[in-house]
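Hi all, posting the design record for the shared folder.

TITLE: backbone redesign
STEP: 1 of 1
STRUCTURE INPUT:
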């Protein structure tokens, strides 16, 4: 299996970034060069995304894991297998302890990695993320299941149109919404079209993975960054994580939607730097 594509810059303590669904590591923009003034910053293209397109796997291999925690049993649902397969690939490639920063779907992967491989993750940053992306009984601060199902069906018919529509959801409601959307449209395909299987697996993770019960098991010091205007992962979901993770704090950025590291870069960089320098 080919290694995932990674770009690394800067010197200092290692800091790894995981992007969201359908995106690639170039979408972090100018925040990473700024952080590289203080840290050794790495940004990875997740399996099937960007320059890692086609290099990933979406099912775990029986009995094999880079983490100490056991693999799911055969009765585990396929989305759990998807997320654990991604964690296994990341854990095998990034073996030294590091600080981990995950955005949106990348935040769900980061949370799972921190739980399964606690010796690898020193500190955790979750951006515009949630333990459970889709609504369930008693869990309303999430996307309706019907909306996500419609989104998945649209992706099966026209992947590019669905990705362009998704960009609109990322920026909706935030300051600089229109200007940022224009920039993102220009960046989306800069590393080619993502693998359709990878995007479908990601949608299944978003639809079915629920990590709420696992939050008390994640003991790393955690910074949660939320956009106050985020409609994809509502701030209430971030507050839920902050209340249940053993060592977590929440920063809500006024005027930001789902992309605080792009729309409010200076505040994002300051909050992250201050947290990691503690």
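Okay, here is what came back for every position:
SEQUENCE:
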């Amino acid at each position: 299996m080919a290694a995932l594509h990674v770009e690394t810059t800067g010197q200092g303590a290692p800091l790894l970034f995981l992007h969201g669904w359908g995106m690639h590591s170039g979408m972090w923009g100018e925040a990473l060069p700024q952080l590289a003034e203080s840290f050794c910053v790495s940004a990875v293209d997740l399996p099937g995304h960007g320059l890692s397109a086609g290099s990933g796997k979406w099912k775990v291999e029986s009995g094999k894991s880079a983490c100490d925690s056991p693999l799911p049993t055969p009765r585990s649902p396929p989305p759990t297998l998807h997320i654990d397969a991604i964690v296994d690939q990341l854990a095998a490639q990034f073996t030294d302890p590091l600080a981990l920063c995950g955005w949106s779907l990348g935040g769900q992967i980061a949370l799972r990695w921190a739980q399964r491989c606690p010796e690898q993750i020193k500190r955790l940053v979750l951006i515009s993320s949630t333990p459970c992306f889709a609504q369930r009984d008693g869990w309303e601060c999430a996307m309706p299941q019907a909306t996500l199902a419609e989104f998945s069906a649209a992706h099966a018919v026209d992947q590019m149109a669905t990705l362009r529509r998704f960009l609109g959801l990322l920026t909706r409601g935030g300051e600089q919404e229109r200007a940022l959307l224009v920039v993102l449209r220009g960046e989306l395909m800069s590393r080619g079209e993502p693998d359709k299987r990878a995007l479908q697996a990601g949608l299944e993770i978003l639809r079915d993975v629920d990590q709420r019960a696992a939050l008390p098991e994640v003991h790393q010091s955690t910074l949660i960054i939320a956009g106050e205007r985020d409609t994809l992962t509502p701030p209430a979901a971030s507050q839920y994580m902050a209340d249940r993770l053993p060592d977590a704090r929440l920063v809500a950025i006024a005027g930001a939607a789902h992309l605080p590291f792009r729309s409010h870069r200076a505040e994002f960089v300051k909050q992250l730097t201050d947290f990691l320098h503690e």
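COMMENT: The chain has ten helices and seven strands.
Let me know if anyone wants the other runs.
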